[in-house]
Amino acid sequence: MKDLLSILTQLGTGFLTTIILFCLTLIFSIPLGLLVAKGRMSKNIVIRSVVRFYISIMRGTPLMLQLLLVYFGPFYLFGIKLRDLGIGKIDYRDIAAVIGFSINYAAYFGEIFRSGIQSMPKGQYEAAAVLGFSKSQTYFRIILPQVIKRVLPAVTNEVITLVKDTSLAYSIAVVEMFTVAKQISAAQTSVLALFVAGAFYYLFNFIVEIIMNGIEKKMSYYQ
Q: What whole-number distance in Å separates Cα of residue 201 and Cα of residue 164?
């Protein structure tokens, strides 16, 4: 029992880092995903091609590799010392983790939003124009709420995957929950810390699923 309490206490710090990484990734990747979706549907062939290439790279290469490139890239490509890239007390490895996760998940969210936007009937745009709505009003007040409702199940799947993917931050030595669990497990030569970490991840995903299901029910107004 004493060992379990010790493990819970130590995992608590790593769990806080996991939550912060999760929240910051969503804050940055969802708006960026909307921009990616717009770029993917752009009439400009150059913009459309660049965005398609970006999506292809993000979806076609391992997230761990992308994290390593974001973290070590500034030093190997430009000779910039990584300690000079930190912001105050925030180490660059934490910044690199947020950047890596955000640009990766923006590609997935972008494709989800694109499919949702393109699934909307053209008649809704025409009806909005007849009623005097501008293009921006049509998009934000009529189209976007319905798109969010349609893509919520797919977005929920990605959000749940993100909870588990945060463990990949250990590859650049971010001290999140999985990193702490591995350290405890190695020190104690026991898998108990790993089981407890698994329970934390499961509970986190359980809460996320409840929240997302609640949002989906509230959005049922747009059915």
A: 7
